Each structure stands twice: as C-alpha cells, then as structure tokens.
Amino acid sequence: MAVSGFEGFEKRLELHFFGDDNDPTVTTMGLRLLDFESLENVLRVVQCTVVSAVGNHFFDAYVLSESSLFVYPTKIIIKTCGTTQLLKSIRPLIHLAKNLGLTICGCRYTRGTFIFPKSQPFPHINFKQEVIYIEENLPNNLCFRKASVMPSKNPSYSWHVFSSASDNGAHFSDGEFTVEVCMTELDRLTGIGNINPRALICDFVFDPCGYSMNGVDGDRYSTIHVTPEDGFSYASFEYVGSVYDDQDDIVETLKKAVQVFKPATVSVSTTSHRREVWTRVAHAMEPLGLKCRSFAMDEFPTAGTVVFQTFTAARRK
Ligand SMILES: C[S@@+](CC[C@H](N)C(=O)[O-])C[C@H]1O[C@@H](n2cnc3c(N)ncnc32)[C@H](O)[C@@H]1O
C-alpha cells in the first residue's frame, strides 16, 4: 500500500480475442479454460490476488485484493487499483490465449487521474509511459491505435484512454455500452444490494476497511469498489448495458449507485456506438443535485465513442 494513502482510482484493461469460429470450445469456453494457477500467475505479476469468485453460464467473475477480474470466452477485463502493475498482464495473457488458439484483436486501457501519482510504479509513472509500454507489448496486427487524455474543468479528473484493434476487431457488440463511474468525497455508504436486485452478488469486506463487489446478471457484470478512508475516500461503479434495455433502467441504475455514496464529485465515462447513452447520464445526475461541470467526447477506432462528464454537488462548486 502506498505510504501516502490508498489509490482508489483503478486502471482498467479490456482485451478481446478471436479464434476458429468452427471450434465450439472457443465460442462456448475459450479463455474460461485457463486454469486457476495460470490466472494466479498473471495476477502475481500485477501484484494482486483472488479473494472470492463466482461464475455462471456466460462468464467468471473474480473479486481481487485490488478490484476485479472478469473472464468471458473471448474477452477479459481486469480492473486494479492501489499500486498494482496492471499493464504487465498484457504479454502473459496474450501468450496464454495463444495456447488456447485465440488471437488478440482488441485492447482498451482506461483510467482516471491518480490521487497519488508519485506512488505509482513503472509502467504507470505517467500516461505517456503507459502508452509506450502497451504499444511495445501488443502485436502488429493491432494497427488502429489511439491514445487520448480527455480533459475536465478540474485537472484532477482527466480521463485517460488507449484503444487499439485489428482490422477484424469489431469487438463491441451492437448496442452494448460500458459505464465507468468514479466518485470522490463520499458522504455515506448504504444500500449497495438494491442497485440491481436481479444480480448474483459476490463480495468481500476488507480489514480494517474497504469493500469490493461483483454483480453477475446473465451475460453482464457490474462492479463496485469502495475506499472509505477520510481524506481520500473513493468509490467506483461500473456496469455493462444495452441501448435495447428500457432507457429508464439506465437512469435508475445510475441514480441508485450514486445515491448509495452521496459523493461531492462524480465523473462518468461511457463507451458506446450510440449517442443516447451519455444523454441519459446527465438525466440521472441532475435530480440528485449534481451539476455537469465539464463534457468531453472522442472517437476511438472500433471501440466507439467515449464521453467523459464530470458532475459536482450544486452546494460545492
Ligand atoms: C476495497 S479495495 C477497492 C479499491 C477500489 N479501487 C476503490 O478504491 O474503490 C480498497 C480498500 O480496501 C482497503 N484494504 C484493506 N486491505 C487491503 C488489501 N490487502 N489490499 C487492498 N486493499 C485493502 C484499502 O485501504 C481501501 O480502503
């Protein structure tokens, strides 16, 4: 743990793979065939461990000592906080997937602005260094590459995005979107279980404080992580949705997640091929007394449009 305080802001890596479509084990199991020991070895390099796990017909969800890991047949998402070295997982994961007959076709890395940037080890010293490291570890078939720092009015809340894909890397299914919510200066913490009552919950309470949770609902995950310490309190909520869902559900889910923590500042990043998602975010925040202070939008080849919005409580400008 960093001497200065615990770094709540997560680093998030999403890797997509493809294999022989005529091989049913690839489409039904794929990366889920990786044995637990191999996953543990990758996590050891990143410097975290599995603390609890659950799986269903579609994917496996792991709560980590530092956030979460989701393994789908052709997609893997790792989210880690603290001083973990997440990008060091890229090379071993590509190697393990190759042994299963899977080739990487998409990579997306995102993170907010660290509260304690000086505590971050290589290759997370700064975004430029992170991008160099990612590029060095990706194969040449991932040719559409783009890195961007999406600004906000407050420099403490920039959003860092790197995305790359091969020319067959149309890795987001039509209508699917990801919402990443980062909250600081928390006021309370009650009612997490009500955010999605349908989800199977797998969680972990840390000693002396801290809480992590994965929700599993069909083929979709949601995840919440909480660092409650005074002075650097932080919580994140992330979920995958579809534009074909009831649009009011998107608003209600976001409202419930933010109401649990009553944060002073909320930043929300949405990644989607559709416009309607980010407009819903503002509709969810305004009734909670949160005003949009900044808005940034950028296009990423094959990953889609990333919209980054920051909101602060109307009482604290
Ligand atoms: C639950 S994890 C989640 C991190 C997540 N990114 C966040 O900050 O919301 C971090 C919290 O657990 C606490 N914690 C206690 N033991 C820990 C451990 N062994 N590893 C990581 N965090 C631990 C930290 O002090 C912090 O409050």
Automatic annotation (TrEMBL):
Which GO BP terms apply?
Answer: spermidine biosynthetic process; spermine biosynthetic process
Cofactors, names only = pyruvate
Q: Which InterPro entries match?
A: AdoMetDC-like, S-AdoMet_decarboxylase_euk, S-AdoMet_deCO2ase_core, S-AdoMet_deCO2ase_CS
Provide the catalytic activity annotation: S-adenosyl-L-methionine + H(+) = S-adenosyl 3-(methylsulfanyl)propylamine + CO2
Pathways per UniProt? Amine and polyamine biosynthesis; S-adenosylmethioninamine biosynthesis; S-adenosylmethioninamine from S-adenosyl-L-methionine: step 1/1
Q: Which domain of life is it from?
A: Eukaryota
Task: Give residues annotated as binding substrate.
Answer: 6, 66, 206, 229
Query: Does S-adenosyl-L-methionine appear among the keywords?
Result: yes
Q: What does UniProt list as catalytic?
A: 67 (schiff-base intermediate with substrate), 81 (proton donor), 212 (proton acceptor), 225 (proton acceptor)
Record-listed Pyruvic acid (Ser) modification sites: 67
Feature type site, description Cleavage (non-hydrolytic): 66-67
Q: What class of enzyme is it?
A: lyase
- GO MF annotations for this entry? adenosylmethionine decarboxylase activity
Signal peptide feature range: none
Q: Which PROSITE patterns match?
A: ADOMETDC (PS01336)
Matching Pfam families: SAM_decarbox
| Enzyme Commission (EC) number | 4.1.1.50
Q: Which terms in the GO cellular component ontology are assigned?
A: cytosol
What keywords are annotated for this sequence in UniProt? Autocatalytic cleavage, Decarboxylase, Lyase, Polyamine biosynthesis, Pyruvate, S-adenosyl-L-methionine, Schiff base, Spermidine biosynthesis, Zymogen
**Homology family:** Belongs to the eukaryotic AdoMetDC family.
State the PANTHER family in the record: S-ADENOSYLMETHIONINE DECARBOXYLASE, S-ADENOSYLMETHIONINE DECARBOXYLASE PROENZYME 4
Question: What's the protein name?
Answer: adenosylmethionine decarboxylase
Question: Which organism is this protein's natural source?
Answer: Gossypium davidsonii
UniProt lineage: Eukaryota, Viridiplantae, Streptophyta, Embryophyta, Tracheophyta
